[in-house]
Amino acid sequence: MIADGAGEDEEKWLAAGAAAFKQNAFYMQRAIDSNNLKDALKYSAQMLSELRTSKLSPHKYYDLYMRAFDELRKLEIFFMEETRRGCSVIELYELVQHAGNILPRLYLLCTAGSVYIKTKEAPAKEILKDLVEMCRGIQHPLRGLFLRSYLAQISRDKLPDIGSEYEGDADTVTDAVEFVLLNFTEMNKLWVRMQHQGPARDKEKREKERSELRDLVGKNLHVLSQLEGVDLDMYRDTVLPRVLEQIVNCRDEIAQYYLMDCIIQVFPDEYHLQTLDVLLGACPQLQPSVDIMTVLSRLMERLSSYAALNTEVLPYFLQVEAFSKLNNAIGKVIEAQEDMPILSAVTLYSSLLKFTLHVHPDRLDYADQVLGSCIKQLSGKGKIHDTRATKELVTLLSAPLEKYNDVVIALKLTNYPLVLDYLDSENKRVMATVIIRSIMKNKTIIATAEKVEALLELIKGLINDLDEPQGLEVDEDDFEEEQNSVARLIHMLYSDDPEEMFKIISVLKNHFLTGGPKRLKFTIPPLVVSALKLIRRLPEEGDNPFGKEASVSATKIFQFLNQIIEALPSAPSPDLAFRLYLQCAEAANKCDEEPIAYEFFTQAYILYEEEISDSKAQVTALQLIIGTLQRMHVFGVENRDTLTHKAMGYSAKLLKKPDQCRAVYACSHLFWLEDHETIQDGERVLRCLKRALKIANSAQQMTSAARGSTGSVTLFIEILNKYLYFYEKGIPQVTVESVESMIQLIKNEESLTSDPSAESFFASTLRFMEFQKQKGGVVGDRYEQIKV
Fold it and tell me: Which family does the UniProt entry place this protein in (predicted)?
């Protein structure tokens, strides 16, 4: 046997034991080869004595045990051959009990007992009962566990199961179950006892060693699950109650967690479904430190998968009231474990919700009930700040969205927003983003104002500043991405009914205007677009029997638009408000609403004068004004002249001369519209072109004075192109002589040859004129008159 010297290394102990083991195994094999039973028993007992050591860790002891197991298989074959040669198996069974030490004696007894059962000279149940009782002689936890593991291993194919060769009148599956349960009970007791041996400082080491040995105990449950005779009735009446009794009574955290998980994993799902009340009844009786959250979560995952793979069993879930039993069990577990962390409680309800959504997708009341139970556990705890708990809560809230792919269904869950309220601001934004992504991914249309109101309550973390904690800094890129997602969401809020659609955009307005100024530049533009789309869908007044009295009219929507755009200059986003005013003016033009169009233009002009001060921004804004005004046909003479005059005035006041020149010649388009005879004033067109030419001359002179060289002629070429445009349109005031004089003026400029880009631009213009001549027709004839 291995010496118990205190200072020796474990590896040395194993090496010494293995060497002694190998030596005795050699002599045992030699005795077997010579059919010497006496010596075979002698050397096998000496070999097995090496397993009496207390100095090896479970991992090293297992190495030694496996060597013994291999040698004992050879010895078992030898015993079987001896019985065939005339040796009495009963005498053999008694002979092995003469070994000096109890541990080798019991290993040999189990080996001889295996042969005894094979010979069928006695009922298997009697031999098995004798063996399992005799093994009580080893009470050392480690040695006892491996001894009983050996007993379980050699007996598993000799149990009197249904269809087994060892089944008979005297041997039934009940005897097999009784044997396995008894062995399981004793092994669990030994396993638990390991926890209480040794000093407290080695507790972690002992727990690690126990974890390495847990499969030895669990194999018994696996053997039970493989017995053909263990049907539902036997499982419900015998196996499960006995196993649960042992689990509850052992009062050991590690054993209770592992064995509960074993039951769930090794026995059929059908059995779990039919015995839910028994299995769940044990959960509140477990130690408070047991990770019951994981156990129940795995049970619900197994049942969910079972339902998904076998849809025909779904009625049984309702029949056994699986949901109610699980819900009640979770409540009792949480009640029994007063110090259960919030994370565990939320995880349990998250698993229950997933189970409900998979097994009872049509029962929204069940899903809502789960959320209600979750609220009950969270009540009084305020906002959840535990990172893992909030993450799990987000998972719980995401489950209905992932299952139904339709946020409208989630809106029907009355407890959904109440659970959402327990998230802090950051996680509310995360959840809001998840909801919006679900809507966009599944192209879900929210078609009523009531549902839109409910949806906005769910995503208020993105659209409202009111509950933001002081000092919270949000990354600008993240903020922009979030607000852009809200902007995209607006286009999914749509109803074919104009009245309902107007209610929807009114709800959006009420929420957005209280959402803080920094959000408005993202949310107002798509809201304006939705309102403008609604205007285009309205029937013409002649087709609308209610006319101006209709509850939704273009006038009413334009008033709505004016109210929301007014909020933008304070954002501050005056340039955005300016553009939206012009868009609304153009929409009013299409509706023949002159006063409204004029009001929008007036507001745009006010913003231009008061808010837009940057010279580049002014140029861009003026281009938009001129372009929009050119497309307007609704204005009477007086209003159009007023707006045109102001645009001309703004053009003349631009900071840089080239910008002034371009703005002025662009204004020439305001006085000549081909489709409207009332807006065709050739004199004013020519006046604009001449004024632009005058400004271009002034710009060139200023450049010459500043640099000492003649300025670029590019402005002149641009003005020439305008002359050609209006000449081609047939404006009488733009004559051949005026075009020719512009060409001559450009040719006489000294700077033309020194500016390659201007020279190329002028050459392109001349080529265009030549091309127009070659086209022939009326246009060609007009260009033929120009002498270049």
Answer: Belongs to the VPS35 family.
Residues 336 and 377 in one domain: yes
Q: What is the pLDDT of residues 236-258, one digit of tens each?
A: 999 999 999 999 999 999 999 99
Q: What was the pLDDT predicted at 550? A: 54
Taking alpha carbons only, the member of 529, 540, 617 closest to residue 565 is: 529
Taking the C-alpha atoms of residue 709 and residue 697, their distance in angstroms, rounded to an integer, is 14
Whether residues 171 and 280 fall in one domain: no
β-bridge mates for residue 446, sequence order: 493
Average pLDDT over residues 448-477: 78
Q: Does residue 713 sit within a domain?
A: no
167 and 237 both lie in a single domain:
yes
Does pLDDT of 471 surpass 60? no
Domain final residue pick, 96, 122, 148: 122
Number of domains in the chain: 3
Domain assignment present for residue 229? The answer is yes
Average pLDDT of the chain to the nearest whole number: 90
- At residue 57, the 3 state secondary structure works out as coil
CB crowding 76-87: b at 16 or more within 10 Å, else e: bebbeebbeeee
> What DSSP character marks residue 448?
S
Q: How far is it, in rounded angstroms, from Cα 751 to Cα 709?
A: 8
Q: What is d(CA 227, CA 483) in angstroms, rounded to the nearest whole number?
A: 61
Asked if residue 671 lies in contact with residue 648, where contact means CB atoms within 8 angstroms, the answer is: no
Residue 651 burial class via C-beta count within 10 angstroms: exposed 0-12, middle 13-18, buried 19 and up: buried
Does residue 70 sit in the same domain as residue 148? Answer: no
* Domain annotation covers residue 49: yes
| Contact (CB, 8 A) for 578 and 565 | no
Band of the pLDDT at 469, cuts 50, 70, 90? Answer: low
Residue 571 tokens read as: 């954002």
Sign of CA dihedral 53, 58, 60, 61: positive
Asked which of 255, 276, 305 is the last residue of a domain, the reply is 255
In whole angstroms, give the CA distance from residue 287 to residue 501: 58
Angle value at C-alpha 104, between 102 and 107, nearest 5 degrees: 105
- Give the C-alpha separation, 668 to 682, whole Å: 9
Judgement on whether residues 290 and 216 belong to the same structural domain of the protein: no
Residue 167 parent element (H or E): none
User: Quick one: 139 and 116 in the same domain?
Assistant: no
Residue with tokens 């197994």: 302
- Residue from 132, 106, 115, 23 nearest 75 by CA: 115
User: How many helices (H) and strands (E) would you count in the chain?
Assistant: 39, 0
Which residues, at least 6 apart from 53, have a Cβ–Cβ distance to it below 8 Å? Answer: 1, 2, 4, 13, 17, 61, 64
Q: Are residues 229 and 294 in the same domain?
A: no
Asked whether the predicted pLDDT for residue 38 surpasses 60, the reply is yes
- Report residue 545's pLDDT band, with 50, 70 and 90 as the boundaries: very low
d(CA 66, CA 43): 17
Distances (CA, A) of 16 to 4, 24, 30, 103, 510: 11, 13, 22, 19, 84
Q: Quick one: average pLDDT of 172-180?
A: 94
Burial zone of 567 (CB within 10 Å; 0-12 exposed, 13-18 middle, 19+ buried):
middle
Q: Name the one residue in this structure whose structure tokens are 């001449």.
A: 690
pLDDT at 5 over 50: no
Residue 523 in contact with residue 560, Cβ under 8 Å?
no
* Predicted TM-score of the model (pTM): 0.78
Name residues whose C-beta falls within 8 Å of residue 49's C-beta, 6 or more positions apart in sequence.
1, 101, 103, 104
Structural domain boundaries, residue 95: 7-122
Q: Residue 619 contacts by C-beta under 8 Å, 6 or more apart in sequence? A: 654, 659, 662, 663
146 and 240: one domain?
yes
Within a domain: residue 648?
no
Token duo for residue 456? 């906005």
